[in-house]
Structure of Carbon starvation protein CstA:
Amino acid sequence: MNKLLKNSIWILIAALGAAAVGGIALNRGESINTLWFVTAALCVYAIAYRFYAAWIAATVLAVDETRATPAERLDNGRDFVPTNKWIVFGHHFAAIAGPGPLVGPTLAAQFGYLPGTLWILFGAVLGGCVQDMVTLFLSTRRDAKSLGQMARDELGALGGTAALIGTFAIMIILIAVLGLVVVNAMKHSPWATATVSATIPIAMIVGLYMRSFRPGQVLEASALGVILLLLAVVGGGWIDHNPTLRTWFDHEGLTLAWWVMAYGFAAAILPVWLLLAPRDYLSTYVKLGTITLLAVAIIMLQPTVKMPALTQFIDGTGPIFGGKLFPFVFITIACGAISGFHALIASGTTPKLLSNERDIRMIGYGGMLLESFVAIMAMMAATVLDPGVFFAINSPAGVVGKEAIDAVAKISSWGFPVTVDQMQLLANQMGEATLFARTGGAPSLAVGMASIFGSAFGESMLALWYHFAIMFEAIFILTTLDAGTRVGRFMLQDMLGNIWPKMAETSWMPSVVLTSALVVAGWGYFLYIGVIDPNGGVNILWPLFGIANQMLAAIALCVATGILIKSDKLKYAWVTGLPLTWLVTITSAAAWEKIASDNIRIGFFSAANDLADKLAAGALPPEKAAVTPQLIFNLHLDGWLTLFFVVLLWLIVFDMLRVCSRYLAGKPVLPLAESPHTQSRLVEDWVRD
């Protein structure tokens, strides 16, 4: 009877999910309620986690809860520390959930709500979640080795070295982009700067509380941390309105960049229990609390989506970024569906904290599901805005015009009416001077979130909600930056360990300090270049972000597919092989367009040549001519890095295929690098107690 009841419930969930997805996909010409998006997401996620994830964990991976994890076997009190699963989940989610699930869907709304929504839902459950869970499992079975080191151990010197170099280089670019976004979010914003700064000492207090004052009292420490975080948010507003104190936190971008670099270095060398884990854990409360509040507000209000399912910009003429629906919707969405950066966290800090393999499904697959839900929330927050307002905020002045009257005329001509008075009123409500040409996705997302919160909980506080949303996005990003820096340190130690084994010891302080400094110097250089760029830096680094991130995911799935085949699991290799094939296709297509396209809004080299021709002809105004050589260099750098990354990707793919074909043919290959089975004492103690 119980089995029949359970089956009936899951059949109903499947039917409801199918109806919701069908309604979203087939709706044309009429407004659609956002409740359908929430319903579709929750039903798809529930079915995927209950059945697909459970099957992969039990059958494909064969997780073993009696097996000791690296955190238990190699416990050193600094990097390898068996940690409560909820704290690990909080750390993992905080580390993986950067700007991608917030900014990517917002920008992809240029194509309409439908393409991005479908990719977020199904790309996550079939690709992103699988990558995260499988990578976490494989790293846990290999002494928490980094992705690049696993590639070297399993594929050999050629593919492994390419993977090591590729993952580390991509990592540097990704962290630099994260740093640039958070610096731009905090620049001349005392409220955001004060609140984000306060999370650092708060995290250390919570870490010491759980480690020394009240060991094991997770709920007490969590309550203390949440109370202090809320006080930090309120205190940030108070500081912002204090003429004297606000000057202490009102800084230029370059000053903040140096502080961000110093924070990244500290997060990489301090014990994980003191700063990184508790800070990310507490940041998760802010993230989950805000997303939950947003979901509640959407359920209460049930606003309608105003953006059409598909816009005319699927042909590649969009004002926010150039490029057709394929492949650029997948590159733009990035982290909301699948992210290579997650593989670095899943093979970096998280397996060093995991106390039991049974938690891999919850942390790996479940953590990515939660990030995908964040992306769905971001898509809804962007598309409930009037399309004219959305495009006015996100369209660069170079496309729609510098003057407000020219911008509204251009946007209205596309069929998305908007007025100057409408935009000025909105800016006043948000406490901003103007909202025109606030590119990058973050401001329009904050406006959408503030509008929903204001309608549900009080429109008199729109400015408060807007600045809270900006601060929320900054915290989202900074927690990814600190974990990324630590993972970069692990990766560099692994690489240097191939030359001098002593450097691979994560507890040897000279290696820790040296590699941390080198990693921070690497991404700090690109951050510095981005901050001093007259165009705000996004044009230098952001185009690389989506392509590099998806290429990194392809590398992770490539390594996973190779290991599955070497583990005599050829019949299950499609689990990682299918998303790998798709990612290689879209990243190669996007890279080719960015390298070879004649369209100056798409191709890096064509844009550089266009600027060079205008500079030589004297067709540029003096202020732009002065910075044009730097812009040309940046575009060439983007182009050559894209070519470098795609060559490395194909090299790794071919090497993986070579190793697999040799194994299947019975020829010698490198043995599996899996650590020997060791019985877990933590499980024994738990059972006995």
